[in-house]
Amino acid sequence: MVRRFFRFSIDSVILQIITLLFVFTGLYFAILTTREIINDFIQGDFKTILLFISIVYYLGSMLFVYVELTFLIGNICLDVEKICVCGDIRYGREKLQYPTSINYVDIVNVEIVPLKKNSKGQSALLPRPIPYLVITNKKGKKFRFGLHFMSKKSVKSVLNELSKKTEVIKGFQFDSAKLFNDFLNARLAVK
Known about the structure:
Blueprint: E1 3-5, H1 10-43, H2 48-72, E2 76-78, E3 82-85, E4 100-103, E5 107-115, E6 130-137, E7 142-146, H3 152-169, H4 176-187
Antiparallel strand pairs: 1-2, 2-3, 3-4, 5-6, 6-7
């Protein structure tokens, strides 16, 4: 059975509501101004300012749709044999989560660490560190899964489910309660 864990916390829900309000109002005004442009064009009185306003509304709406998609894409997935994430849709220096996966049988260590880095371990321009679920494999390679904008309940579920899967498949066990406390501390980290 595949379980997906989404980025829903109070912070992310408020930000998503604001984003959706901007999208809907922007599209509403874009449709109104487009209708006015068509009416004015039919009557022979073409106003370039209305065309400019409607283009701004359409482009702004696309930007807010992009922001909304950054919350919906890149969620943690616990599969039958591995934990994976497909990565977020951001580009360049703002990309935080890259696609990664690790099989449960390869897990050696699990920890939660606050980092001012992306999931590849490269420095990122962040005002505060974000908590990462860092899983180490047998070769010593670290796989980082971003826990930013996830609720406490979701993180607790991820840790409990991961603990069950690793215990059943490999016999590897870790203290999910201690890791959850590490997550709570990592959320408040400033350095």
